[in-house]
Design goal:
Blueprint lengths: L14 H59 L1 H22 L6 H21 L8 H14 L5 H34 L5 H11 L1 H4 L9 H11 L1 H4 L2 H19 L4 H21 L1 H12 L19 H28 L7 H5 L20
Helix pairs in contact: 1-2, 1-5, 1-6, 1-11, 1-13, 2-3, 3-4, 3-5, 4-12, 5-10, 5-11, 6-8, 10-13
Family: Belongs to the glypican family.
Function: Cell surface proteoglycan.
Protein name: GPC5 protein
């Protein structure tokens, strides 16, 4: 009653043993593919984490550097500007991670929050009536009168270019992990299970426990079993090319570090532009929002903690070096993995599974 290991000679196998063999080959094949995938998965997940840590380190440094601008040049508004600055860098971080947001909305939201502070602390430093309604009116007016000139738009353009590549790379790494995890659990068909049993275990039914499959035979069986997985080859090669392109983009003209470092300067230029146009802005705001209460007061700048520039610069340099090294190391490894899915059958037939240095092997029917 054997279904797979039928043979003219007497056999020590039963139908139940064949079923056990089928379960064994499915388990062994899953483990073999998991072992092949492990290194690749480890590299992608490891680099994804390392990239993210480096991004966070760069964002933290750029955020502190931006905060220090207010603490040194615009002390009257430093305390209140802390929250908008924090929100801006949180939004940038979420964008890189793939959140449904845009660089433009993050930057413009920041300038919306900044304008009431610039207006009441720098352009008209005597204003005391900053009610919610008046603040909201200033925020909405910012969109119409464009107090920061071209600088807010320039900041959007510069950041969009560099952050796009970082966002895409972050998403691409997640996609790579997903693809590998999916192929790990690719179900073996019944025909494949039977072919694997015939290749690996049918010799045992004849008492030939030391005879292993011939190399060519193993390759034919494995290629048949993994046809759906090896079909990923073209897309996988394209995926590696995309990773290469994105890492080059990050390192070249759309340099993430330069863009993040430029945030401080862009904000400074924007504030200076608003101050230079203070009288015109005041006239427009008075028409739209009304005249606020004025009173000569000495605005406090208490609770401002100076940023430790030297320590932060050192941390930034290390994060930057780490990011650049990770880029090079990662793309070098991934380029070597271009043929991962094309050569999966060869890799599974490598090692102890087949008979290498011998003229005697199993061809599916007999010892040859």
């Amino acid at each position: 009653d054997l279904q797979i290991c039928q043979h003219r000679a007497p056999t020590c196998c039963t139908k139940k043993m064949e079923e056990s063999y089928q379960a064994a080959v499915r388990r062994e094949r899953t483990q073999s593919i998991q072992a092949l995938n492990f290194e690749m998965n480890y590299m992608i997940v490891g680099h994804s984490t390392a990239f993210q840590e480096a991004f966070e380190s760069l964002l933290r440094f750029a955020g502190n550097r931006t905060s220090s601008l207010f603490e040194t040049a615009y002390r009257p508004m430093a305390k209140e500007a802390a929250e908008p600055v924090k929100e801006l860098f949180t939004d940038i971080s979420l964008y890189i991670l793939g959140a449904e947001t845009t660089v433009e909305s993050a930057v413009l939201r920041f300038f919306d929050s900044l304008f009431p502070l610039v207006y009441s602390r720098l352009i008209n430093p005597g204003i005391t009536d900053l009610s919610e309604d008046y603040t909201e009116c200033l925020r909405l007016t910012r969109q119409d009168i464009n107090p920061f000139g071209r600088y807010s738009k320039n900041m959007v353009t510069e950041l969009s270019k560099s952050l796009w590549a970082s966002r895409m790379l972050s998403q691409a790494l997640s996609l790579g992990t997903e693809v590998i995890n999916t192929t790990e659990h690719a179900a073996l068909t019944k025909e494949c299970s039977k072919a694997l049993v015939k290749m690996q275990y049918c010799p045992h039914c004849q008492g030939l426990t030391l005879i292993r499959p011939c190399v060519g035979y193993c390759l034919n069986v494995m290629r048949g079993c993994l046809a759906s997985v090896s079909e990923l080859d073209a897309q996988w090669r394209e995926y590696i090319s995309t990773l290469e392109y994105l890492t080059n983009e990050m390192a070249a003209s759309h340099d993430l570090e330069i863009a993040l470092m430029g945030i401080r300067n862009s904000i400074n230029e924007a504030i200076l532009h608003a101050q230079l146009n203070g009288p015109q802005l005041s006239a427009t705001v008075d028409k739209v929002c009304g005249q606020p209460k004025q009173q000569g007061v000495n605005l406090s700048s208490a609770n401002i903690v100076p940023v430790k520039e030297a320590t932060e610069t050192q941390a930034f340099t290390m994060a930057l070096a780490s990011l650049n090294n990770k880029r090079r190391e990662f793309i070098s490894y991934m380029k070597r993995s271009r043929t991962f899915y094309a050569s999966i059958a060869e890799r599974l037939c490598d090692g102890d599974l087949v008979m290498r240095d011998s003229s005697t092997c199993w061809n599916g029917e007999d010892v040859v």
